[in-house]
Amino acid sequence: MSILTRRISLIHTLSIYGNQTVKCFVNTMNATEILTFKTNFTIEEQEKILNTLNDSDSGELSRFHISKNRIKNLQNWKYKKGPFRTLNDVLEVEGLGEKVLEKICHNIITENKVDNNGNTVVSKRLKQLITPPIDGSMQKIGIHLASMGISWAKLYRDQNKVTDWDYEDFSSLPKKMLPADTFKLALKVLHKLPTADIYILEGNHTISPQNISQSASVSLYTQHLELSSMLIALINTSVQHNSVLQEVENNKMQQYMENKVFHLRAKVPARLFRTLVGTEKVAALTAVSQLVKSDEASDDFLLPCTPISIEDNLRHAFLAKSSANKELLGQALMLVVSFMDLCIYKNPTSISALSSNKAKS
Hints:
This protein is of the alpha/beta class and 361 residues long. It folds into 2 domains: 3-109, AF1531-like domain (DNA polymerase, domain 1); 130-360, Ribonuclease H-like superfamily/Ribonuclease H (Nucleotidyltransferase, domain 5, 2-Layer Sandwich). Helix content is 46%, strand content 16%. Strands 3-8-7-4-5-6-11 form a 7-stranded mixed sheet. A two-stranded antiparallel ribbon has the order 1-2. It has a two-stranded antiparallel sheet with strand order 9-10.
């Protein structure tokens, strides 16, 4: 064994401590390049990083805001050389320089921190985002209610995949509706909603002082409250939409009711996707269009959230809609993506973006 080969072997067996500088020697055709990586991560944190990179599939790795090309390069390296033994090994992967690796490590370490009792520590920036508090489930639906209609998007945690995306148009409805008419509309929406573990609504917006004197604005606001309240009651009491009621009915158990409808704080999706100017929301088509194609061009993905995958028929149906209906569909998609990244995945990139946007507003 040559001196150079022995030195490479020795360096690769080193552990990384505290603020120690670690050198990785890469033998090329005519020269030896020295790669240096400085880290402040503890031994335990480094083990978590390596275990995550070694054991996670592509869908799980995308949660740490790693592009598809880099994920592919990571997997190719492991396929050829085996699991990563040190962070030095990760530096050898094509497209992963020091800054990129540092960011990936930080994203992995800051996800789902636990206290001494093994309980998940919720960041102060995440507190009170969702009402009531939630511990996490698998399938979600975001329901967005607007003056022009109601829309929903179903997102599976596995591969962050959208499998149902639709809306109900309100353009043909009368401006004033009796409670009985609103109830019929709520029933119609309920029958079209796909089933899920939980359902996410955006928190009710407060009516602005300048609109309080306008009877039309007050009437519309009241109708929205009536419709959302009826939907909450119907979803929670529907055997089809509330899995707990299915178990009660199938097993002849004692009647038991469990809430399945949660509220994400108002304007959180607009803040996360930067469609909030002052206190007013603006068109979100640019952000939504990037979300829709995020699984096709992940390296160009600039939004502060986990890229989604979407079935081709849903993508084509979206692209064929008018701008107004695209906007309506997009609001539901942004809602469920915001909920998953902030409250379930606890994506550090999303949390940081939401915090910085809040500070600016």
